[in-house]
Amino acid sequence: MTTGFAQLGKNGVTDNFISTLKSHFQKHENVRISVLKSAGHEKEKVKKYSDEILENLGKNYTSRVIGFKIVLKKWRKAVSRKRN
């Protein structure tokens, strides 16, 4: 199981960031996103970022928030719920 890495900075979730995540998923099964201090180190903001990323990626992805990191996983079939 391979893991890709990305950083979420002060610009937040942009179209460019989403396209970067999609390119990571072409090579990796999981992607770990570090939320930098400039993006806001608040639990509510990290969960909001996670929801926004899932909304943009689609139904085949789930996320899990661990501290100030978001772990994304791509599934073969559509998933109906988000993992916490």
Quote the beta fraction: 25-35%
- Count of separate structural domains: 1
For the largest beta-sheet, the strand count, sense and barrel status come to: 4 strands, mixed
Please identify the structural class as seen in this structure. alpha+beta
Report the CATH superfamily: YhbY-like
Question: What is the CATH topology?
Answer: Translation Initiation Factor IF3
Radius of gyration: 12 Å
Shape, please? globular
Which strand order spans the largest sheet, edge to edge or round the barrel? 1-2-4-3
In total, the number of strands is: 4
| The first-level CATH class name | Alpha Beta
Elements, N to C (H/E): EHEHEE
Low-confidence stretches: none
Percent of residues in helical segments?
25-40%
In short:
This protein is an alpha+beta fold and 84 residues long. The chain has two helices and four strands, in the order E-H-E-H-E-E.
Describe this structure in words.
The protein is α+β, with helices and mostly antiparallel strands and 84 residues long. It has a single domain (3-74), classed as Translation Initiation Factor IF3, CATH 3.30.110.60. It is 31% helix and 29% strand. It contains two helices and four strands. The protein has helices at 15-25, 43-57, and strands at residues 3-8, 30-35, 61-66, 69-74. The two termini are 20 Å apart.
